[in-house]
Amino acid sequence: QVQLVESGGGLVQAGGSLRLSCAASGITLSIYTVNWYRQAPGKQRELVAGISSGGDNTNYANSVKGRFTISRDNAKNTVSLQMNSLKPEDTAVYFCNAARFRFNENYWGQGTQVTVSS
């Protein structure tokens, strides 16, 4: 009943941009902490960016700070990740995660592939 669907991934050249979207159904995303994670082949899943419920405080991994921006569109029940100045090391499957820790709720999308070529 709860579903998160990522979209917007693709193939871009280094220096290019992509905008990922996480669309939710079955939950109201505005009341959830939403995180973007990524996982590259042979590597652990890492937190890329997060946005808090309520106050929309944001946090970013140092590797993407200044290049990526996480934001909400509550009217569309989505959270986006704007990715600029992409680097080959950004290549990974990007996952959307929504959590309400107080209620032990944690949801994941299926992931979307981002490939950055040199």
Summarize the helices and strands and which ones pair or pack.
Layout (H helix, E strand, L loop, with lengths): L2 E5 L2 E4 L4 E8 L7 E7 L6 E6 L6 E3 L7 E6 L4 E6 L8 E9 L4 E4 L3 E6 L1
Parallel strand pairs: 2-11
Antiparallel strand pairs: 1-3, 3-8, 4-5, 4-9, 5-6, 7-8, 9-10, 9-11
Q: Can you offer a commentary on this structure?
A:
- The chain is globular, with a radius of gyration of 13 Å.
- The protein is mainly β and 118 residues long.
- The chain has no helices and eleven strands.
- It has strands at 3-7, 10-13, 18-25, 33-39, 46-51, 58-60, 68-73, 78-83, 92-100, 105-108, 112-117.
- Strands 2, 4, 5, 6, 9, 10 and 11 form a seven-stranded mixed sheet that branches. The chain has a four-stranded antiparallel sheet with strand order 1-3-8-7, with no helix packed on it.
- The mean pLDDT is 96.
Gist of the model:
The protein is mainly beta.
Helix/strand order, N-terminal first:
EEEEEEEEEEE
Low-pLDDT sequence parts = none
Strand proportion, as a percent range, falls in over 45%
Say how many strands there are.
Answer: 11
Separation of the first and last Cα atoms: 40 Å
Largest sheet report:
7 strands, mixed
State Rg: 13 Å
Shape: globular
What is the helix fraction of residues, given as a range? under 10%
Mean pLDDT: 96
SSE-based structural type: mainly beta
Number of helices: 0
